């Protein structure tokens, strides 16, 4: 005989939380730039993203929002050593599994016993080799980019995305322009009325119509150019000093710009360059893991790398968007050594950096500079950069950076594309 056993129903206090809700709670953790650890450790890329860290971050986020039931929270406070065997631990693990199942994070399988028994030199069995790691998936970056873009555009009011408009006309698909005679190579966007009228005007109204090659008329539309952009992010230590985290807002803006280009400007391209003591290009997928460091600001090396990246892009327009908060304080010498001087505006560093700006102008590359500081020496340097490259300079704050940058990108108009 079958028996049915009934037990008391215990509700899940986090049942109503979606994966999107969890992503919003963990946004600061995923985009951490090293601000909270600026006096203890520095490294550029956080390679030790473990599930223990993610678990603790979610626990802290739920605790800060007061979403943990009082009885579970009291058990955690009374006996933290028994937390791993508690119900609260199991509930948070269930939430993390939901993130993994919906594709926001990918969890690496736990290490095998053989790898634990044979640790790498310099690491014990309880080190990073014995921990379960996770990676932020592209879906998570896309969600964070969309969320940031939505918040920025909401603060701007109504805004038309559009495309990069020019005053040139081409034979495209959209038909809000005038017509002209067809030429070899044009898109066959025929204006039937104008074509038939041309044939009648030439040969009279006879049946059948004598349609000739010269009667073909095509509609013109506005030529929309494509743009290749390199976003240069300053990740020197000044970006997290002076009691303010400036690098995390810059990363959020980069994610929003990436989402904007992918969805509204599919013909455009975006690459990321970090500059510090030297410079490096990073894939968009690694943006969330980018950390502040090393120390100095090698602007010239960043411009050099950005030019090499743009040389690979076959676009009508090429531009560099530079986000920084400090003056150039480092220079890569011909023999590979790095010359550094953080005191004032070093004449050698400034002159070589301005020479690189002039080279960008000769190569047809526009530089738009977004400054997160406004001291006198820096303002003078930025004005000189703007004068040489005929770009724009915005003196803004981490809170208004995204509004300035996105509006500049969306409203970009050129008179002529060469």
Report on this structure.
The protein is an alpha/beta fold and 418 residues long. The chain has three domains: 19-111 and 127-136, no CATH class; 149-162 and 225-410, von Willebrand factor, type A domain (Rossmann fold, 3-Layer(aba) Sandwich); 166-223, no CATH class. It is built from 13 helices and 14 strands. The chain has a six-stranded mixed β-sheet, with helices on both faces. It is flat and about 95 Å long. It starts with 18 loop residues before the first helix and ends in an 8-residue tail after the last helix.
Question: What structural class do you assign from the helix and strand content?
Answer: alpha/beta
Oligomer: single chain
Fraction in beta strands: 15-25%
> What is the helical fraction, as a range of percent?
25-40%
Class of the largest domain in CATH? Alpha Beta
Mean pLDDT: 79
Name the CATH superfamily classification of the largest domain: von Willebrand factor, type A domain
- Number of helix segments? 13
What's the architecture of the largest domain in CATH terms?
3-Layer(aba) Sandwich
Task: Give the helices and strands, then pairings.
Layout: H1 19-25, H2 27-30, H3 51-64, H4 70-78, H5 87-101, E1 105-107, H6 113-117, E2 134-136, H7 138-156, E3 165-170, E4 179-181, H8 192-203, E5 217-219, E6 221-224, E7 227-234, H9 247-264, E8 269-275, E9 279-282, H10 299-311, E10 317-324, E11 330-332, E12 338-340, H11 347-362, E13 365-371, H12 376-389, E14 392-395, H13 401-410
Parallel strand pairs: 7-8, 7-10, 10-13, 13-14
Antiparallel strand pairs: 1-2, 3-6, 4-5, 8-9, 11-12
Helix pairs in contact: 7-9, 9-13, 10-11, 11-12
């Amino acid at each position: 005989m079958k028996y049915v056993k009934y037990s008391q129903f215990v509700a899940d206090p986090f049942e109503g939380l979606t994966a999107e809700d969890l992503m919003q709670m963990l946004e600061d953790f995923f985009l951490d730039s090293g601000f909270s650890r600026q006096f203890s450790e520095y490294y550029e890329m956080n390679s030790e993203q473990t599930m223990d860290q993610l678990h603790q971050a979610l626990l802290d986020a739920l605790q800060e929002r007061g979403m943990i039931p009082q009885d579970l929270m009291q058990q955690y406070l009374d006996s933290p050593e028994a937390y791993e065997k508690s119900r609260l631990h199991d509930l948070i693990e269930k939430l993390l599994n939901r993130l993994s199942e919906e594709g926001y994070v990918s969890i690496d399988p736990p290490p095998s016993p053989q790898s634990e028994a044979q640790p790498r030199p310099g690491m014990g069995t309880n080190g990073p080799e014995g921990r379960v790691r996770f990676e932020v998936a592209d879906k998570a970056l896309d969600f964070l980019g969309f969320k940031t873009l939505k918040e920025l555009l909401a603060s701007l009011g109504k805004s038309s995305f559009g495309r990069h408009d020019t005053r040139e006309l081409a034979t495209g698909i959209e038909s809000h322009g005038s017509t002209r005679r067809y030429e070899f190579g044009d898109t066959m966007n025929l204006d039937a009325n104008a074509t038939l009228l041309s044939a009648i005007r030439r040969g009279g109204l006879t049946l059948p119509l004598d349609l000739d090659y010269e009667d073909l008329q095509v509609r013109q539309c506005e030529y929309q150019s494509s743009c290749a952009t390199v976003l240069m992010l300053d990740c020197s230590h000044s970006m997290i000093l002076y009691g303010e985290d400036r690098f995390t807002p810059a990363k959020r803006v980069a994610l929003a710009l990436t989402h904007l280009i992918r969805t509204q400007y599919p013909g455009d391209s975006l690459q990321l360059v970090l500059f510090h003591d030297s410079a490096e290009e990073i894939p968009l997928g690694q943006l969330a893991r980018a950390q502040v460091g090393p120390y100095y600001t090698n602007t010239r090396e960043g411009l050099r790398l950005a030019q090499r990246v743009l040389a690979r892009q076959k676009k009508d327009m090429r531009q560099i968007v530079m986000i920084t908060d400090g003056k150039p304080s480092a220079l890569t010498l011909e023999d590979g050594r790095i010359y550094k001087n953080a005191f004032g505006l070093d004449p050698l560093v400034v002159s070589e950096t301005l020479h690189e700006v002039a080279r960008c102008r000769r190569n047809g590359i526009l530089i738009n500079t977004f400054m997160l500081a406004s001291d006198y020496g820096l303002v003078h340097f930025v004005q000189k950069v703007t004068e040489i490259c005929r770009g724009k300079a915005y003196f803004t704050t981490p809170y208004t950076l995204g509004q300035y940058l996105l509006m500049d990108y969306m409203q970009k108009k050129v008179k002529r594309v060469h």
